[in-house]
Design a protein that fits this description.
Elements lengths: L4 H13 L14 H19 L3 H18 L16 H21 L5 H18 L1
Helix pairs in contact: 2-3, 2-4, 4-5
């Protein structure tokens, strides 16, 4: 059986798309900024849910899912709630502080996740503005 040039190129493209290349898969090392963002997202989600802000809690849960997926295979244990957020003003303040931390991570990270930190910072800033 003769192989045509087109057949060879298609086969090479299929192998490359299937991941059969010599480039090894990169496993993400545990990242302190990602871990901190995950813990804050969990905390803010619980606080927003307890105060009746289901949409905001849902946004934080989406961040939790993304951050957990990025941190695999490292598991980040859930922390005990340090201090309960009792009202909307405290939640807005916590959102603003968490936004500032995510913004700082965006600007100082040495990883490839600057865009993710920027999106998280923007989301938290919007939450603070909506709650306030």
């Amino acid at each position: 059986m003769f192989t045509t040039r087109r057949g060879l190129l298609v086969g090479a493209a299929v192998l490359a798309a299937a991941g059969c290349t010599e480039t090894p898969a990169k496993i993400i090392d545990s990242d302190d900024d990602l871990t901190a963002a995950l813990r804050q997202a969990r905390s803010l989600s619980r606080a927003a849910d307890s105060l009746g802000y289901a949409d905001i809690a849902g946004d934080h849960l989406a961040h939790v899912a993304t951050l957990e997926r990025l941190l695999l295979p490292d598991a980040v244990e859930a922390e005990e709630a340090a201090g309960a957020i009792a009202d909307a003003a405290a939640l807005a303040e916590a959102e603003a502080a968490a936004s500032d931390e995510a913004r700082e991570s965006c600007l100082t990270t040495t990883s490839d996740f600057a865009v993710l930190f920027g999106e998280i910072a923007a989301s938290r800033a919007a939450h603070a503005a909506v709650i306030a």
